[in-house]
């Protein structure tokens, strides 16, 4: 009986760890709508243009991202097989998929902030960790996925502010300063990322400790992102409760549609034009079709003069969850197909061996 209880407890624990972000977002959404006061109080302290607690949350996220970034397999990622996939991936993530933001900005939501939020989500780089994990689960080239993550998130600090300036048509009263946004992203994203990476490479024993506490670091990063979302949603509680449910459904449909558009662009190009090998194909298709939530939320945090931050965050969360669930299914299918192919090959070899003996 005790063993059965422990077994169930372990399954529940694994489920919670695996799905910490969707579970966390659901919990803070309920809390923010029912009791927004604590979230508003936590989000209130400011230092200049920076919300103190939210900025600390973001900095911790990117320090952890730097700590966990592995670069040992970079040469493998830039091999002959992965080179063209890498070049296309960078162009797709920062160029092709980003340009979809101009289309997203024209979606006629009743709430303007939904258009702004979806546009911002389009122009940010690829995911920081979940994408690489999904590529690994799919049996893809995780070194190439990692390289795309590092490259686009470093370059994205420069490209995103100017993209945002272009896609968010906020009018004269809410003009966006791309240079100012660039400086803020450097301080809150790039510097912490570099600091984390330097610690990983320069401090003796850092890599071993990061490996040892990998799950805890991942959970800490997720907790920081959940805290940012909690504060943002709490501050937007009045606006959120006034939004019609049909508008929320339209945002969900748009988030799913956006990811399908990205997949429909990247899949045929990687398969039929670039003709990438299977491992590289999986990495480039998945990474080029995803967008990072932490950078999206960070950028929106600096766009207070455009609209209500909480409302702009909703499409980013929906887009993130859509790509997470859809790509998890795709990765699982690809992995199962590979297993089936290996089994068929083994069965064929066994059959041929029997025939040759006869």
UniProtKB/TrEMBL annotation:
GO terms for cellular component: chloroplast envelope. The keyword Cytoplasm does not apply. The chain crosses the membrane at residues 20-38, 50-69, 85-104, 116-136, 143-164, 176-195, 215-233, 245-269. It comes from the Eukaryota. The keyword Nucleotide-binding does not apply. InterPro entries: Na+/solute_symporter_sf, Put_Na-Bile_cotransptr. It holds the Pfam family SBF_like. This is Cysteine proteinase Cathepsin F (ISS).
